Amino acid sequence: MDDTAQRLKTLRQTIDGIDDQILSLLNQRAQAAGQIGHLKTGVLYRPEREAQILHRLKEANSGPLPGASVVFLFREIMSACLAYERPVSVACLGPQGSFSEAAVVRHFGHAAQRRHCDSLGDIFRIVEANETDFAVVPVENSTEGAVGIILDQMVDTPLQACGEVMLPIHHQLLVRDASLPLSEITQVYSHSQSLGQCHHWLDAHLPQARRIPVTSNSEAARLVGNSSEAWAAIAGDLAAEPYGLYAVARHIEDQVDNTTRFLVFGHLVAQPSGKDKTSLVVGVENRPGAIHALLTPLAEEGVSMSRLESRPARTHLWSYVFYIDLEGHQSEERVARVLQEIKKNSIFVKVLGSYPVTVSI
Amino acid sequence: MDDTAQRLKTLRQTIDGIDDQILSLLNQRAQAAGQIGHLKTGVLYRPEREAQILHRLKEANSGPLPGASVVFLFREIMSACLAYERPVSVACLGPQGSFSEAAVVRHFGHAAQRRHCDSLGDIFRIVEANETDFAVVPVENSTEGAVGIILDQMVDTPLQACGEVMLPIHHQLLVRDASLPLSEITQVYSHSQSLGQCHHWLDAHLPQARRIPVTSNSEAARLVGNSSEAWAAIAGDLAAEPYGLYAVARHIEDQVDNTTRFLVFGHLVAQPSGKDKTSLVVGVENRPGAIHALLTPLAEEGVSMSRLESRPARTHLWSYVFYIDLEGHQSEERVARVLQEIKKNSIFVKVLGSYPVTVSI
């Protein structure tokens, strides 16, 4: 045996020894998780505890494995340890392979059982009826054309927001005939969100093409697939095959870190993890200074806002509806004081929930 | 603090201690894998070594984690350890979310880089040109209507088969109008494979409906989605959303363990793992006794055959083409003797490769 072969053999023996130790520790971990299960009733998953574990290990990691790998592997280890007692079940929008399913797996790991829902109305109802433990719904920057309805349903549901998921999304330019020069494309179809997100690329590469917003990226792909015109669609990879389209340009979004944000809803109230957000919906009167009055307490208490978005109200009870994300947990004193003040200055407040900030991978 | 809270705290501290040890071991493992990387050139992935590690750990596992979780977690640990030096790149058919991509992830773990190909011709060419390390292609029981072409391409490519993947596949009954009673459905469209696989369910629930085979399950969904007739399609979840269809019955396949089989192709020759298969393509003359003569050596040497399938030959050089999977590695003496005998009794033999039997999860 030459020197290299001998060293290879030694290294492989080292790895086998490490694997034996990891295997033993994984089973010890599952056992301890099982004992915790016997202390509790109902859902064993604790969002704040998972977030704390992942933050701590990412921080403690000295490499050479990158932090993203550490977070990914421990998410899956926790998912497997939880599942052997009783897997978490999660409702999500759309079929196997949808972005929403990817968000479920990113948050709960592969051992989570997925329930695929055909309609947005089903998702909340299924969790409300305890058919699944949680629901994962897109709330921001979604190209599925559905965010408005979700926001309305969030106001109506008795469920609590108890987690957030950030999913990177990429856009492709899809055409029927891959040999068509870009300069001959006359129209580009997509959801308005996607057209906006690919603005610079379209200016540079398809200045001549008319941009036509449609209800969803899937709908754009369908239109282009069914037409013999020199049209293109902007959509994700998922939309290409079913409509016989080819991706002739990939990752054409202007921002490389383009993400869709999802919220996790369930019956449980997430306890503070040390790094949390609170989401709320607020209705205010349409009078001068109303928004300013609403936001003053945040500045006074030094509470940051990570999102403020207005939406037309569905009813005439109030005039504007705002969706607000605050930094901090509602059980923190300054956040509680801010919520108290916001209540005074609004017609209606619904706190959707406080939950750990997502652990990035 | 009451007794339960105290016990919970102690168990959580135990888990934190275990996690610290796992984290340290994961990094030690990545370091050792990196040192192996410096001993070698080219692709670091060794199919036989991975299979041996997974078999060994599944065997050694004493629980409570199930074997499937152990295999899943170690597949991902190996994937992450390999990726931090240089990720494996793999070409697969279809868009993000396709069954082929799921097969790549199941075999190479999440850290594998995926290259999505629009056509079957591209897949082999990309690996032949060293643009990716491997290709994963469906070879059996695929509902993508493409197996025939793949089989022909396997004969032409200089690449070696170096792994297999088994992916569970589920079928759904998809319709446009979810309120349509099953008894009113007049026609069911699907790939003939899928119609066959749902035979019993169709007999019991849709006896009146005509079964119409089409080129792929996606095509079936497209036809049903574009028609206002009382038609249904059988397809996977992926096909529902793009065509505006609803799954009104799920997992309607007769066999619960319905799987699609994929082969992994690359430049490397997999060494024996101790539990291997060998795939070959054989051309024989169309004369009485030809097939019997071909198979006699297998019986004599006690080599099992896990698959035998005939296909019409593309040319007139020979009359029948058989695809055969043998148990064992071509470097084993009795397998080598069988291959020698088969060569004598055929016009043409191509050994696609020997590779480890998939480690089931």
UniProtKB/TrEMBL annotation, chains A, B:
Keywords noted in UniProt: Amino-acid biosynthesis, Aromatic amino acid biosynthesis, Cytoplasm, Isomerase, Lyase, Multifunctional enzyme, Phenylalanine biosynthesis
Chain positions of site Essential for prephenate dehydratase activity: T260
Keyword Hydrolase: no
EC number: 4.2.1.51, 5.4.99.5
PROSITE patterns: ACT, CHORISMATE_MUT_2, PREPHENATE_DEHYDR_2, PREPHENATE_DEHYDR_3
InterPro entries documented for this protein: ACT-like_dom_sf, ACT_dom, Chor_mutase/pphenate_deHydtase, Chorismate_II_sf, CM_dom_sf, CM_II_prokaryot, G/b/e-P-prot_chorismate_mutase, Preph_deHydtase
Domain Chorismate mutase per the UniProt entry, residue ranges: 2-89
Pfam families: ACT (PF01842), CM_2 (PF01817), PDT (PF00800)
Function: Catalyzes the Claisen rearrangement of chorismate to prephenate and the decarboxylation/dehydration of prephenate to phenylpyruvate.
Protein name: Bifunctional chorismate mutase/prephenate dehydratase
Classification of source organism: Bacteria, Pseudomonadati, Pseudomonadota, Betaproteobacteria, Ferrovales
